[in-house]
Design a protein that fits this description.
Layout (H helix, E strand, L loop, with lengths): L9 H10 L1 H4 L3 E7 L3 H7 L5 E8 L2 H10 L10 E3 L12 E6 L10 H14 E12 L7 H8 L3 E5 L4 E7 L8 H6 L11 H11 L12 H4 L1 H4 L7 E4 L5 H8 L4 E5 L8 E2 L14 E4 L8 H11 L4 E7 L17 H9 L2 E10 L2 E8 L3
Parallel strand pairs: 1-2, 1-4, 2-3, 4-5, 8-9, 8-11, 9-10, 11-12
Antiparallel strand pairs: 5-7, 6-7, 12-14, 13-14
Helix pairs in contact: 1-3
């Protein structure tokens, strides 16, 4: 089997991916781009996507040229790999989405070759993950219905101008496994409560983009317009990271402070947000953006008990994979129905805003306020 054409048409690949960008924005986690196309890598690495992007190619010269061209994208060079014609260099169940913008050889390949290609895609993609493939299409040779049946496609779209099919294929979900059930399990044992401080200090020290507002990797800043008007000062940011949200709130006129277990910004307080905070009743509101999924059950209990002592809360939960560090940091992923049940044990929910399929922002009040 052969995953690549002899020469990737960069303009065509980018046009294809951009045409489906809105749906790709709803995907979170590790993504594989088949074909080392610089323009497509730059596009998919943009702030509108929540993807930890990898790329493969069969031509070493193209790989080296691509690595040089994307050196400005943090960590991208190390995520570009050589692939042999019959396999992908990744573990099973590794990706949430695979993007093959120019799967042109599928049109001329026999049924066994097509089956082998998609079997390899199926191996490396997670249950329920999505594959997007572009296929040159000649309606005189084969019908769209035939392609849909052969590939067991979820959706097929035909672009008459480019004469290309866009095939969306959903990976099989193991029998008796639901999204809620899969998300409820801890997905990694990379860290636990006793050593998470050292782990996160190392991540912040080694990755200057992690939690950086300047590089659009600070969800608290991205979501600020959605929750700022809900807050009443003074405000305490729980899990403040680099302190960008605190700085933005102060600039907006709030009295605000931040606390985190790691030391990055000397203006922020250092402490464990899952343990009692002595002066938390001095604050009317708390903010905690994309932090809860990093905590184990007993830690979430401690955090919510702290938050419960203020009048208002703004917090988000991200149920997708963590991206960019090479480690799965989201150790507490549940279906949002289950999260909502837990949240209602502590708070009255004024609003639950769906940011995308893997992220919800909650605006809440403590009971009795």
């Amino acid at each position: 089997m052969d995953f690549m054409t002899n020469q990737l048409n960069s303009a065509t690949a980018l046009q294809f991916i951009a045409a489906h960008g809105q749906r790709l924005q709803m995907v979170s986690g590790r993504a594989l781009l088949v074909g080392c196309d610089v323009a497509s890598i730059e596009f998919l690495s943009g702030p509108q996507f929540d993807l930890n992007l990898f790329a493969v190619d069969r031509d070493m010269a193209d790989i080296e040229a691509c690595k040089n061209a994307v050196s400005h994208i943090p960590g991208m060079q190390s995520r570009i790999s050589f692939t042999a014609n019959d396999s992908l260099p990744f573990d099973s169940d590794f990706f949430s989405v695979i993007i093959w913008a120019e799967g042109t050889k599928l049109a001329s390949a026999d049924a066994l070759a097509r089956e082998a290609i998609f079997a390899e895609f199926e191996r490396v993609i997670r249950a329920g993950g999505t594959t997007l493939v572009g296929i040159d299409f000649d309606p005189k040779q084969q019908s769209i219905e035939d392609w849909a049946q052969q590939l067991d496609a979820e959706q097929i779209e035909y672009d008459r101008r480019s004469q290309q099919l866009a095939v969306w294929k959903r990976s099989r979900i193991v029998e008796n496994t639901s999204v809620a059930g899969a998300a409820t399990e801890n997905v990694s044992l990379d860290h636990h409560p006793a050593d998470s401080k050292a782990l996160y200090q190392s991540i912040y020290d080694q990755h200057d983009w992690y939690g950086s507002a300047e590089q659009d990797r600070c969800p608290g800043i991205r979501l600020l317009p959605d929750y700022q008007d809900w807050l009443a000062g003074p405000v305490l940011d729980l899990g403040c990271g680099r302190g960008h949200v605190v700085e933005a709130l102060i600039e907006a006129g709030f009295q605000a402070e931040g606390i985190d277990q790691i030391v990055v910004n000397p203006k922020m307080r250092v402490g464990d947000i899952t343990q009692p905070i002595a002066d938390i009743k001095n604050f009317k509101s708390v903010v905690c953006i994309d932090c809860i999924e990093h905590l184990y059950e007993e830690q979430v209990t401690g955090l919510f008990e702290n938050m419960q002592q203020t009048e208002r809360q703004a917090f988000s939960i991200h149920n997708g994979e963590s991206t960019g560090t090479g480690q799965e940091l989201h150790v507490n992923r549940k279906d949002f129905i289950d999260w909502t049940k837990i949240i209602r044990e502590y708070f009255d929910i004024a609003s639950a805003i769906q940011i995308h399929e893997n992220q919800v922002l909650y605006l809440t009040r403590s009971r009795g306020n």
